[in-house]
Amino acid sequence: MNNIIGLVNGGGVYLADDQWTFVDDEVWVTKSRPMILPLDQWQKLDESGTGVRSIHGVWLGPDDDPAVLGPISGELPIIALQFPSFRDGRAYSQANLLRTRYGFKGDLRAIGDVLRDQLALMRHCGFTSFAIRADKCVSDALKGFDGYDMIYARSATTPEPLYRRYNRGHQLATPTEEER
Amino acid sequence: MYNYDSYDRALVQARVHQFRDQVSRRVNGELSEEEFLPLRLQNGVYLQRHAYMLRVAIPYGTLSSDQLRTLALIADEYDRGYGHFSTRQNIQFNWIELEQVPDILQRLADNDMHAIQTSGNCVRNITTEAFAGVAEDELIDPRPLAEIMRQWSTVNPEFLFLPRKFKIAISSSESDRAAVRSHDIGLYLYSGDSGEMFLRVMVGGGLGRTPILNEIVREALPWQHLLTYVEAILRVYNRHGRRDNKYKARIKILVRALGVEAFAEEVEREWEQIRDGAAELTKEEYFRVARDFSAPDYEKVDAVDMDFGAWLARDSGFAIWVQNNTQAHKVKGYVSVVLSTKPGASAPPGDVTGDQMRSVAELADHYGFGEIRVAHEQNLVLPDIRKTDLYSLWRKLQELNLATPNIGLLTDVIACPGGDYCSLANTRSLPVARDIQQRFDDLDFLHDLGALSLNISGCMNACGHHHIGNIGILGVSKNGEEFFQITIGGAQGEDSSLGKVIGPAFKVEEVPDAIDRLLSTYLRYRELDEPFVETVRRLGIGPFKDEVYRKLQNHKELAQ
Ligand code: SF4
After folding, report:
1. Which domain holds residue A77?
2. SS3 state at B489
3. Rg (CA), chain A
4. How far is CA B55 from CA B96, B428, B468, in A?
5. Helix (H) or strand (E) segment spanning residue B488
6. How far is CA B5 from the centre of its chain?
7. Strand order across the beta sheet in which B215-222 lies
8. Span A71-102, pLDDT tens digits
9. Which of A13, A33, B41, B265 is most buried by its number of CB atoms within 10 A?
10. What InterPro entries does this protein map onto (chain A) (predicted)?
11. What angle do CA B331, B334, B340 make, to 5 degrees?
12. Which sign does the torsion angle of CA A167, A173, A178, B4 carry?
């Protein structure tokens, strides 16, 4: 069973029929099976006549520079970024750059050690789907999107810092529902 | 001081709620310890040798009297009646039950406090000097920008899983009292020719096992760019800092590996991409925050107070205390008073009881404007005291055992909690502190020695900042036995330097003797009022080393 969560209107939903296959070695790419490929394989696609690029996505390792996807970000339906450990925060910066600097508008997926307590942070940095670690329960992980989620700084999903979003310093009774 | 608005309040309240849930998931086994660890660290909870420790943030060392009362209550209700003020201007409670942490955090949140990011591989409490806003030699009040950075770095989603912890300090006085040079980012705030606020940005400092002072990466950065510049530094670090080796993961290692020029170029390149965006600071936001730090209603008082002068002449104990434990104030007729948490052998440095905290809160309300500061030397400060009140304040502080006139002297020891609490410790640092305080308890002798900082760390992690003590003591363990290595010549402030090791380490009982010999060497060679560290700089460590080990040799021979 896959363990994929997607975002609908900013909230998490279980994607039971997620179509993507993750590939990290040489495989026979067919048109009917959308895959998330290493960049070099994806680049070879059209040349080798094995498949059409535009239906396949790419993944990056935490050391990779997201700038390499800048020129092709418009062609990619999905990019996956790896969390080798949930304590390794490099993919947060990669995600942020893909969204704010390299113009990526497709699905940005977190893969690897992806856990409930980091999901809201990932969402802020521009991730839109989440491959929850296989041994974890998806319905539990979905709770990671609930609850209060205010940040002071800006993020990929909240392009302005709090002081530009609100007229601060007023003693509102409680934040409105939207801010929660 | 800064007043929380509804957003600030909502955030700390929500955080308590979230952590309560995480604790209960840990307790019922849904979260493994490995998964829970970074979550509890980012809420200030450490597992120490015998119990959990909770570290509460005191942003840039500023507390209201009510907040101090809350800390007193936590000390009494959830701990053993005291708290420990740390060298990062925070307070630590050493005997905490994990299950009670959410309740404690709730008490904090209800009083506009928190423990967020006081630990873990994230941006930690922003620090500045204890006299910010009141010091006579201050150029610009650094607190508004410190608060703005506190907010910006709190739960900043991109930077919560950095390669390693990240410490930022800001200072704006002629004699940097915030030790900015030993921070990951040190900021020095000053004004340009036409009065605009500029920052000097220094990166890559840190103590620990590879002690190093930070280096300038940017001069004259206009203040509006503070957050974007820090963001650029953090992004470069988050992406390129080492993650394979905990001891090589601080930004100082990255700066050194790239070289400061290349590092600065990388930062500038990143910054060029983001500098003029929405994250630029606005004047409105600066003034909104700065308003909360505007001066309280000082009375117009004469610079010279007759009564005060009379007491100085009449009571030499008072005069010595005033000389040592007060600091010049911006406003005439006022001073800042330092409360020594180091009475000597009777209490470990930085430990303050709940009763003492409540009494200090009373004094802050009665004599000051209800504000207390925490100095990174682990002492407390009443920032705004009229000279005319000093005598009666002094009498009350004596009753509280907080008037030891040793600020800046040898017995104003800075020590980490060491092996009595800390599970990383190799050695127990507190008994060493106690032995030294006991051995040198003669106040006349201490005053004759003059300014002298002594810092003790229980292991290489250097929480006691031993590298920047004029005398530094580092606990090391050899074959399971405790030894203490001594360095001399370290200094903080404008003239920062790292101490040099004088030679082989000592057994715990040999340390006071070794210190004694260092001091007598100093007294023999000092010129006029030259402070200890200057003598070391002038002569090098040679004469000190010779004296310490020559005598030790004699002792050993005699004993045979
Ligand atoms: S220096 Fe070492 S022993 Fe002391 S508090 Fe830090 S980690 Fe613990």
Report:
1. 4-149
2. coil
3. 18
4. 10, 20, 23
5. strand B481-488
6. 27
7. B168-171, B185-191, B197-203, B215-222
8. 999 999 999 999 999 999 999 999 999 999 99
9. B41
10. UCP030820 (IPR008318)
11. 130
12. positive
Confidence of residue A175 (pLDDT cuts 50, 70, 90): very low
Q: Is residue B406 part of a domain?
A: no
Predicted pLDDT of residue B94: 92
pLDDT in the model for residue A30 = 63
Structure tokens at A50: 């094995």
Asked whether residue A51 carries a pLDDT value surpassing 80, the answer given is no
Contacts of B104 (CB under 8 A, 6+ apart): B54, B74, B78, B93, B96
In a domain, B495, yes or no: yes
Q: What is the secondary structure of A155-171 as a DSSP string?
A: -SSS-S-HHHHS-TT--
Structure tokens of B170? 């800001």
B419 and B332 both lie in a single domain: no
Residue B393 sits in the same domain as residue B498: no
**3-state secondary structure string, B28-70?**
CCCCCHHHHHHHHHCCCEEECCCCEEEEECCHHHEEEHHHHHH
From the CA of B461, how far away is ligand 1's center (Å)?
6
Interchain contact, B279 vs A153, CB within 8 Å:
yes
Same domain (yes/no): B286, B322 = no
d(CA B333, CA B335): 7
Instruction: Note whether B41 and B149 are same-domain residues.
Output: no
Regarding whether A177 and A122 lie in a shared domain, the answer is: no
What is the rounded distance in angstroms from the CA atom of residue B474 to the CA atom of residue B472?
Answer: 7
Q: Are strands B334-339 and B351-353 parallel, antiparallel or unpaired?
A: unpaired
CATH of the domain at B181: 3.30.413.10
Contact call for A120 and B157, based on CB within 8 A: yes
Report the number of distinct structural domains present in chain A.
Answer: 2
ipTM (interface pTM) = 0.92
Please report whether residue B229 resides in a domain: yes
Residues B73 and B103 in one domain: yes
Question: Whole-angstrom Cα distance, residue B415 to residue B420?
Answer: 12
Indicate which atom in ligand 1 lies nearest the CA of residue B425: 3
The closest alpha carbon to B125, from B78, B40, B184, belongs to B184
Average pLDDT rounded to a whole number, residues A120-126: 97
Task: Provide the chain A residues 94-123 that lie in CB contact (below 8 A) with chain B.
Answer: 94, 96, 101, 115, 117, 120-122
Report chain B's terminal Cα–Cα distance, integer Å.
Answer: 63
Domain with B286, as residue range(s), is 143-292
Average pLDDT across each block of 10 residues of chain B; the chain has 560 residues. List them in order. 94 96 95 96 92 95 97 97 92 95 98 97 94 93 97 97 97 84 95 93 90 94 97 98 93 96 98 92 95 94 86 95 96 96 91 97 98 94 96 97 95 92 91 94 91 95 93 94 96 88 95 95 93 96 93 56
Q: Is residue B467 part of a domain?
A: yes
Asked if B149 and B170 touch (Cβ cutoff 8 Å), the reply is yes
**CB–CB contacts below 8 A, A to B:** 112
Residue among B55, B209, B416 whose CB has most ligand 1 atoms within 8 A, to mutate: B416
Atom of ligand 1 nearest to the CA of B418: 3
